[in-house]
């Protein structure tokens, strides 16, 4: 009689097979490597942008005359009252005004927010409210951009106002005497009269704005 027992099958240890699942650690390593590569590319891009910005700033400052660069430096040093090579809102406002830029509060705050850096407390244990300060290098950059963007006619009109005492709209012989005296120029009376006669196109004995503009632009 045939045996009814089923043939035995080899025993399979499922627990042992679990230890042979595919190793997925390579995927994690690849992801970490990609992320690191992206961060490095971002760092290099930021560095390129910084260098390009510095190059453009140098080009702008090189377009200024030596006199203009010196005026920017003098204005900053004059109003940097605590001599820390940084100026706050009020110091920036008067420094820019001295250079011929009387800007509203909103524009000055925008300059500080874009280019300024937070101040640091002198005593870390005392209550302190941070404020934005503009370093000298950033002040140079901002003022270089504004001077280069300024219409030369505005500069000429500023000079006209220095001659035109009292805002008459004209420069007369008395104005020329005063300016020559202030500048230490030893000009004779007939020389001053000749200057008026040469440029006084409408024959009123004075130089108006249009005539002064023509003198400076010719």
Task: Break the fold down into its secondary structure elements and pairings.
Blueprint: H1 14-18, H2 25-63, H3 66-79, E1 86-87, H4 89-98, H5 105-115, E2 117-118, E3 132-135, H6 136-149, H7 152-163, E4 170-171, H8 173-182, H9 189-199, E5 207-208, H10 209-217
Antiparallel strand pairs: 1-3, 2-3, 4-5
Helix pairs in contact: 2-6, 3-4, 3-6, 7-10
Task: Tell me what you see in this structure.
The structure is a single chain. The protein has 218 residues and is mainly alpha-helical. The protein is 62% helix and 6% strand. The strands form 2 sheets. A 3-stranded antiparallel β-sheet has the order 1-3-2. The protein has a two-stranded antiparallel ribbon with strand order 4-5. Helix 2 crosses helix 6 (136-149), helix 3 (66-79) runs antiparallel to helix 4 (89-98) and helix 3 (66-79) crosses helix 6 (136-149). The radius of gyration is 37 Å and the shape is elongated. The model has no long low-confidence stretch (mean pLDDT 81).
Structural class: mainly alpha
Order of H and E elements = HHHEHHEEHHEHHEH
Beta-strand content: 5-15%
Could you give a short account of the major beta sheet? Answer: 3 strands, antiparallel
Task: Report how far apart the termini are.
Answer: 132 Å
Which whole number gives the mean pLDDT?
81
Strand order of the largest sheet: 1-3-2
- Uncertain runs with pLDDT below 50, 5 residues or more? none
Rough shape? elongated
Number of strands: 5
Specify Rg, calculated over alpha carbons: 37 Å
